[in-house]
Amino acid sequence: MIYANLMFLTCVSLAVGQNLVLIGGNLRNNNLPVWNMMVELAGGPGVARIGVISASNSNTTEGDRVINNFVRLYGANAIEIAVNESLANNILVANLVQKQTGIFIVEDSEDKAANFWDRFTSLVRPNDTPVRPPNDVVCYESASYKRQNLIDTLRPSGMDSLVLTAIRKVLNNGGMVAGNAAVMSKSAVILGGDSVAALLTGTLFISSPRVPFSFRKAGGLALIDTDYVFDSQLSEKGREVRLIRTLLDSNVSRGLGIDENTAVIVSNPLLQPVGKVLTEMGTTSGAFYVDVSNVPVGAGAAASYDNVDFSFFTVDDSFDFTAGKAIYPTWKKEIFGQEQFNKAVPSDDILSLALPAQWRQTAVGLINSNEMSVTSYSAPSIVPLIPGVQVVFDRTRAVGLRARLPGNSNASVVSFQGMSASIKVLRILD
Ligand SMILES: *[C@@H]1O[C@H](CO)[C@@H](O)[C@H](O)[C@H]1NC(C)=O
Ligand SMILES: *[C@@H]1O[C@H](CO)[C@@H](O)[C@H](O)[C@H]1NC(C)=O
Ligand SMILES: *[C@@H]1O[C@H](CO)[C@@H](O)[C@H](O)[C@H]1NC(C)=O
Ligand SMILES: *[C@@H]1O[C@H](CO)[C@@H](O)[C@H](O)[C@H]1NC(C)=O
């Protein structure tokens, strides 16, 4: 036993310092816990040297903001390193990258949509028209061609460029690497479409979703060595079903979706990754974990998914990616027998893009109630033509934990593991 503990300590101490920061999109400039953590993991204020990498010919809007935050607000040194397809294999650029103690990858790049001819290339779709990014955040949603451009530049045809090799060395040498969670996987990377589009793609149901569902099967930057699909802005944009469908279509069983302005700090990303949820003070956001290995084969085409196993982790929860298990901090207590509500409240817009976090709120309400299941719906619509969807949550085998929320004593924070969902498209005439 003592021997086993010593072994454990040795492994942990070897791993200290390798950290991948998975950002759930729309990271606010004033999110002190996350920015301070990134600087800390890169060596601390005054020591940290952070390279901000974009797939561009020159500096970008988002890169400038990230630099400004690190240098002006959080006490790190930072430089912008623009990398296009030729610079990505330039030894001088790779050496510069390797000299940093931290790397922040931005998806922003030059606006190809502004170029007349690019409108006719397959990389730019009509819905990709650039929108002005919000002022006070980084890792905002960028057009899907930018996401593809980033991956194609750093990892063309699934082969590491010299710059990506250098980024990996920064990690291996004990540095910090950060960026939008969605591009970090070695498994499929989601490019576009909402949950309804994802649910109905390639089924017999007639529908006309506004933004087509698409993902990149060849994977992303592969900065975490585990077969997971990642997504960002998960609860806010109701992306649970889009993540589930991507898993089923790409033959990957597990996924992790991170909420906006939230991060999962992954230690040991290239060996035995363990993540920990970090949020802004006083918020109940977190990470949605899902496992589709018990969903019956053929569910995709039938648009009917049973036995979707899902969990939700909140601030300070740790998560072992390999085992698929959570470790909770002692200040959170099991809810069982101490539920606060009699009834669970269903949502009538469970996959909503407009009302944030319907899935999360409904599931958190169920685990904190005396009921065992709750049935929610997503309403059908005529324009665009979309059938209704029914979503049933069952908590029979789930375990929930609750605590007063640090920084906001009036609210509780709730985590749970092992809830089950059934998702079914309703025929228009049902
Ligand atoms: C890459 O960027 C550099 C510096 O801006 C530029 O000189 C070069 O032409 C670019 N290469 C490509 C392939 O765009
Ligand atoms: C790009 O950003 C760096 C700071 O990281 C700055 O030194 C450089 O002047 C910028 N280049 C341009 C063309 O603005
Ligand atoms: C899916 O993955 C499993 C193992 O992960 C493999 O045995 C199976 O052949 C794969 N199926 C397809 C259709 O790729
Ligand atoms: C908690 O609620 C009380 C009464 O409604 C209010 O005065 C107080 O400001 C709240 N505290 C926080 C941290 O929101």
From TrEMBL:
Domain of life: Eukaryota
Keyword Cytoplasm attributed: no
InterPro entries, sorted: Class_I_gatase-like
Signal peptide start-end: 1-17
Keyword Signal belongs to the record: yes
Keywords assigned by UniProt, alphabetized: Signal
Protein name: Cyanophycinase
